[in-house]
């Protein structure tokens, strides 16, 4: 069966914040201001109309002229809503907020309350603008999805290397990869050796040093000299294509949720519409002096009162406040629905490298045997200066006092290390295999060290070792403690790094459940297994390409945005811009505060609505009272939502 070729253009952004009416509001940054122009025009015309009405400044402003003026003020904000309502009507979705907004505001025009009709629709439009501004702000700060596939492959044809698309390279052809380039296809190494960064594929923190005829994988980055590779798989069968395919399938399996406002409108709108119809016609059977025009007037007032202005503003504004507060704290939510989803999380799964560790090498321990530490490091650094390996770079960060030593006759022993002469002494730097080959005894204590270790011998005597490790982020331990405090008890660590290193890091962080040596498929299976229990609401934190499938599958995918891969960032629902894991705790707190404010607004708006609706149906509420109740509640809801911008979540 032929595999489907993966194209990142087919991958859909994983934001559940897309309304069915996004087409009318989705604008790029270049045209952001244009989205506000209709509301500005309507606002200015409404204010002018109200001023002329109130001060009676223009005697001619009455009759048809007044109707036309307010109609023109209504069109910029009203037409898009009516258009969306009509589209929904054609699709069979009758009772939407667009439909209710349309009949309520048009009803206000029918009974002669033109300013109210414009004002109500304007409020709704402003609420929508606030909501979309929050989402677009998040999108603008999130890195655009980049095609992680190498754009080209240098393939050897007709006696020379030519640049072609990776898809055009055949199995058995030879390709060349320069320093810093990504390997475009899976293959076998033809060069004598290579140092590859495979973190994007495996999560392994240590660069992979391989020898001739070893397998190499698409997506790995060549760190040192120019290398040549014989292609063994076509692009659609490569490791990176497989990972992208996992992303695509995981995204397809991820359930789509709708915003509460649309769910509520499906119940609220038909009830209000049928009640308004009832207010118009039912009295005919019970009232002796029934006058259709009078009861129609009451029904239209009822519709204006029932206009969900405060509701449709308070909900998105509450989320907008949460999104804005999160953004100020270096946290980007891709949509309001993820604020909701974050409040339900009870299981947190995290990657290791780049998530709780910095993803860079640091000297953890220097052990000199029979030598002064500074002098020992000077001998070691003299040789490492001749290497471009990331471990060498970490060693060279050591600050040694005194003059630098110089190395001579430096040679590299493939797969073992370096040999050279420093101050007339023969120095060996490398792994245990190098020591064994030169009959140098290595202390047994080195066997229990799980991190990367550099062994040193001077004049055929073991002189000591340096332990190199990926460093924990400063707030990693605090994060786990705080997660427990906010009620997240089930915390797991899944890593592509060695299991021994993973277990060591987990122990330091007080994480009981940890597994290392996992492939992307293994991580995906682990999270799928967790999600089989409907009570588990799973969040996953990661940063590499290999994490993207799990980010897409989890209930909430959280990506470390500062150093994370573009695919992980695009696939995730929440982006931690500062790469601080402690911000995950803050994201949970902000989400809970936001949901609390939103529910306060809902209860306030709905409670007042019910009271005034009853008064309106009984003819006890006038249009002005309805306007005051509606606008007043909306303003209270706005003020309540603004509180989120001032809150602290330390």
Automatic annotation (TrEMBL):
A matching Pfam family: E1-E2_ATPase
Sequence segments annotated as region (Disordered): 1-27
Comp. bias regions, Basic and acidic residues: 7-27
EC number: 7.2.2.12
Catalytic activity annotation: Zn(2+)(in) + ATP + H2O = Zn(2+)(out) + ADP + phosphate + H(+)
The keyword Nucleotide-binding is annotated on this UniProt entry: yes
First-level EC class: translocase
Compartmental location: Cell membrane; Membrane
Gene3D superfamilies for this protein: Calcium-transporting ATPase, cytoplasmic domain N, Calcium-transporting ATPase, cytoplasmic transduction domain A, HAD superfamily/HAD-like
Membrane-spanning intervals of the chain: 35-52, 64-82, 94-112, 118-135, 267-287, 299-320, 597-617, 623-642
Domain P-type ATPase A, residue spans: 149-248
Keywords: ATP-binding, Cell membrane, Membrane, Metal-binding, Nucleotide-binding, Translocase, Transmembrane, Transmembrane helix
InterPro entries: ATPase_P-typ_cyto_dom_N, ATPase_P-typ_P_site, ATPase_P-typ_TM_dom_sf, ATPase_P-typ_transduc_dom_A_sf, ATPase_P-type_domA, Cation_Transport_ATPase_IB, HAD-like_sf, HAD_sf
Chief place where the protein resides: membrane
Similarity annotation: Belongs to the cation transport ATPase (P-type) (TC 3.A.3) family. Type IB subfamily.
Protein's name in the database: P-type Zn(2+) transporter
Organism: Corallibacter vietnamensis
